[in-house]
Design a protein that fits this description.
mainly alpha; Growth Hormone, Chain: A; 3 domains; 20 helices; 77% helix; transmembrane transporter activity
Length: 559
């Protein structure tokens, strides 16, 4: 019995090696691809989201110090950033079927290790593997969503696939307290293992159509990539540990020095290569690409503000994750609405509009959060944090798509350069953004505390009255007047520290609002200029992309 091989039509062929083909699927199969894309996208986000949501619980469960907990985060971010540089070359060299099998195998192994072994060093290893797998699952989610869409809406599939990985961040914080209701942290590992098995079964039942292979690795990669990997590792370690042990430690500075030196050496090698992993010349000389990378980092900073801003203030005021369930439900809904709005309203002909709207929303929401006090509760942040979550996902897609269109218009091979640098900016940019926000809060807390102490004296009748009130409250536990007075002073210092922290967070909200307002004015002026002259900022690239796609359809199929 003879077997006929399906011949791909011109519009179904992959544009480059390592990418899938896009047959015209029946609608029922498209629905299945969409369901699997949702599962893979959420699982990709949960690999990092569950860790961030439960770092204090992981430290307590494994008996770790805060510094050891920081190294667990470093392990994930380091390998996540590293794999973003290699993803395209791995797919081009080994093909999609082997690539997917490696990812799924790694996902199962990682979650089995976390489920069965509860040890610091094993957790370090497992989180490193999670970084490798999580970064790879992002592209898998994108490809599955692209398969679910007809050709005319394939760009929206990219937005939906990658957006789901971002949506998982607030969703993980909503689900974590529900999983930990009975104080059994093993349930978190069980949930992650269950998601991994679900992904395994789904991709086995309905694989992604494969494309063609191409030799992509070169000998010079053995020098350039280890240098870049070492640089990423050093910078990630410095950004995470700096906010834990503080920035005045000498070894934190040396980590950044080593990271910058290694990255610069790798950049020098890549700059002079004929076929670079990331084309620095193109990045530096392409109009708008640096702006895309900056805005890509700002997305991570905006998402970090949700964890460091309102959620950080609630933590400082003594609220636990159990008391924040509704807060994270609201932010998850905001992020989901932002993602769906981005997908439904995306127009390449007006790619700057979502950025203008998003920066305006973040600015308004940040200014709405100003004026908090020690009695503030999550309900005070529902509306502004819903708005920030909406805006963060609303402008994620257009930023990503602008970069991809610019890369594909130049040549499909440039998508590797864009993906590597964009992934790097997302990971390292997010870490540095979180570190800066944390440092800002700490410094402003100290400033407010010093200002408060300068105007407070024990001889001041008002200060003395507060001490006496606190001392009287302790008389239920002790009749020692000296101890009660010391307790009153200690309690007053705690109250002043809390007020200083609240004031610091208000300063943060003002700063984020001003920064967002500046971005709104800059991007708004650019859009207004293009509208005034009747031009599209990526009009040339769209025409180049259409021409490149037409040429690819006319070429004979590659094996």
């Amino acid at each position: 019995m003879s077997h006929t091989t399906y011949q791909l039509k011109p519009h179904e062929r992959p544009m480059m090696a390592g990418s899938p083909s896009f047959p015209d699927h029946p609608w029922k199969r498209r629905v299945c691809y969409a369901i699997i894309g949702v599962i893979v996208g959420l699982t990709a986000g949960f690999t990092n989201g569950m860790m961030l949501a439960n770092i204090p619980q992981i430290q307590g469960y494994l008996g770790l110090t805060p510094e050891q907990g920081g190294w667990i985060q470093v392990s994930y971010y380091m390998f996540s950033a590293i794999i973003s540089v290699l993803l395209f070359k791995i797919r081009q060299n080994f093909g999609l079927p082997r690539y997917v099998s490696y990812i799924v195998t790694g996902l199962i192994i990682t979650n089995c290790l976390q489920f069965f072994f509860h040890d610091y060093h094993m957790e370090l290893f497992a989180r490193g593997m999670s970084g490798l797998v999580g970064g790879s699952l992002n592209s898998m989610a994108m490809y599955y969503m692209m398969q679910a869409m007809p050709a005319i809406h394939r760009g929206k599939g990219i937005l939906l696939g990658l957006g789901l990985t971002q949506l998982s961040q607030p969703l993980a914080r909503f689900l974590s307290p529900l999983l930990l209701q009975h104080e059994q942290f093993q349930l978190v590992f069980s949930f992650q293992l269950g998601m991994a098995l679900l992904v395994c079964g789904a991709v086995w039942l309905l694989p992604i159509p494969s494309g063609y292979l191409e030799k992509s690795f070169e000998k010079i990669d053995l020098i350039s990539f280890p240098l870049m990997a070492a640089g990423i590792a050093f910078i990630s370690a410095g950004a995470v540990q700096g906010r834990i042990v503080w920035w005045d430690k000498d070894w934190i500075g040396w980590l950044f020095v080593a990271g910058v030196v290694c990255c610069m050496l790798s950049v020098i090698i890549e700059y002079n290569r004929k076929r670079p992993m990331f084309d620095i010349k193109w990045m530096m000389h392409t109009n708008g690409m640096l702006q895309v990378l900056v805005f890509g980092s700002l997305i991570r900073v905006a998402l970090s503000e949700q964890n460091m801003g309102a959620a950080g203030l609630m933590t400082a005021l003594g609220l636990s994750n159990d008391q924040m369930i509704h807060f994270y439900a609201v932010t998850s809904c905001g992020a989901a609405l932002g993602l769906m709005t981005s997908v439904l309203t995306f127009k390449p002909t007006d790619i700057k509009l979502p950025l203008v709207i998003s920066f305006a929303i973040i600015a308004i929401a940040s200014f709405m959060e100003v004026g908090q006090n020690q009695w503030s509760r999550p309900v005070n942040f529902y509306l502004p944090e819903f708005m920030i979550a909406f805006a963060s996902l609303f402008f994620f897609g257009p930023v990503m798509m602008e970069g991809m269109i610019r890369a594909l218009a130049k040549d499909p091979v440039y998508i590797m350069s864009f993906s590597a640098v964009f992934g790097f900016s997302q990971t390292v940019g997010g870490l540095i953004g979180s570190a800066l926000l944390n440092a800002f809060i700490t410094i402003r807390t100290r400033v407010h505390l010093i200002n408060s102490a300068d105007g407070s004296y024990l001889t001041d009748p008002q200060v003395n009255q507060l001490i006496q009130q606190n001392a009287q409250a302790s008389q239920r536990f002790s009749f020692d007047s000296t101890w009660n007075h010391a307790y009153g002073v200690s309690k007053l210092i705690q109250q002043d520290t809390m007020l200083a922290q609240v004031a610091a967070y208000n300063d943060l909200f003002v700063t984020v609002g001003i920064g967002s307002l500046i971005c709104f004015l800059v991007v708004g002026a650019q859009r207004w200029w293009h509208q005034l002259h009747g031009t599209n900022p990526i009009g040339k690239e769209l025409r180049g992309f259409a021409a490149a796609r037409q040429r690819a359809m006319q070429e004979p199929p590659k094996q």
